[in-house]
Amino acid sequence: MKKKMVSILLAALLAVSTFAGCGGNDKAQQASSSAGKEEGEKTFVLPINTNAVASITPYNVYGSDDLLIASSPCFDPLFIINKDETRWYLAESLEPTSEDGCHYQLKLKEGLKWHDGEAITADDVVFTVNALLEPTNGTDPSSVCYNGKAIAVTKVDDLTADITLQEPFSAFETEFGRIQLFPEHVFDGNVKVKDNTEALNKGIGSGPFKLKENNEGESIVYERYDDYYRGKADLDQVIVKMMPDESAQEAALQSGELSMMRITNPTKLEKYEKDDNYTVYNIPEGRLNYMAFNYQSPLMKDMDARKAICLALNVDEIITGAYGSEELAIPAKNFCSPENLYYNDEMKGYEQNIEEAKKLAEKSGLNGKTLHYIYNQNRPNMKETAQIVQQQLKEIGVEVEIEGMDGSAFFPHLFAAWITGETVEDTSWDLASNGMDQMNADPATKMTGWQGELVENGFYVSPETKTLWKEASQSLDLKERETKYKDLQEQMNEDYAMYPMANTNYVIVARKEFKGLDEIKRVPIFEDYLKITME
Length: 535
Description:
The chain is an alpha+beta fold.
């Protein structure tokens, strides 16, 4: 077991919550019926941190983790690529058909069926791509539109589709593979799917479980689909419970209503590791938690000011104080995650230098100023992170006022420069903590977050960074691509464009009768429900 690092600050903050969730195991079966369990069936119940799921059909492939988790028992991707392997689901292959990096052919597996018995064909591939590109659906088209240029998909035969890109894109395969098809026939071929709530919530999917019932605002109940093309699951049912309150989740876990929950603090981690009734699983989340500099703030336009902040901070102390354990997070070195392709593991990241930071703070006019720091209070460890930054910046004569916001208020501030599709001025904040998912292996998937005129009005993007992004994402030579991406990671650190803080882990505690929860170490969790068994 990795060495624990628990700070006095964190212990004080968690003292109350540690006891709030405690409940007796003598109530183990009392809540079972409310979760939709059937006596004698193998039922896996997991919580999501939301009160509502607008659509069971995942028509937005960049939905939140919670929404993707809610639909994953029912809908399979085409395939998944990570840094180690490719896992094939609905697709049998994706092959280039030219040397220009712009033409591919996709083949589906034979004998695929939707849960209503209709065949899954290339028509569904064409329909899904066109629906993702349809602007009225309000989806993020990043999986099918690269550098603002949409792909085109045409049917060759029932199991084959040709794909054309307008320009090479190194992350095409990782982006395209994660698409979860949805059925053309259910939507009568109309790609304007957003307002067709009846079809969206029929949940006619392709995965190992089919929709049994949708209890709005409470739970989604899935039952095993026995005609699943990869074989029958061991579980009989999967139930997704809408339960955003962490204390309620812990009480439900201990009563037997839930099968698992996520752990985000070291006190609970230690508690469950010592309890023989539970198993703790640790999955690298592939997420970077970072501190953003608001480039609309006059103070943050000065590189010396950004550099002063980066040199004043101590990332090891941030991990110790905010996360408390190496099992929950490790110090980040750059904008990539260790789970990415082309991760530059030779970089050291920023090293604290208080004396140099003081000089730069004085030179830039930062000394004596008060900075406004905002964070998303719905995300774990963000409050503690902000408090530690506040204390560390005092050492160079910079005061920090911190403000927690819920997500609906936080993101319009953080992304004010481009969230509405036009530049919106927002100088109400200087610093902000956010998390950036790295669900795909190729860092080019994050290019849209650091490219474009609107983005550059909110975050600093140097000319050198822009050039490297473009060259790396369009390179057809693997060795050259790796070199460019490693140079890019170094360049963004040299720009002091952000302060990388933590590469987080997704730590799960599960009742001991469930096995295989970490067979695939990927977030969103439980990519393949065939891996989960109940003894």
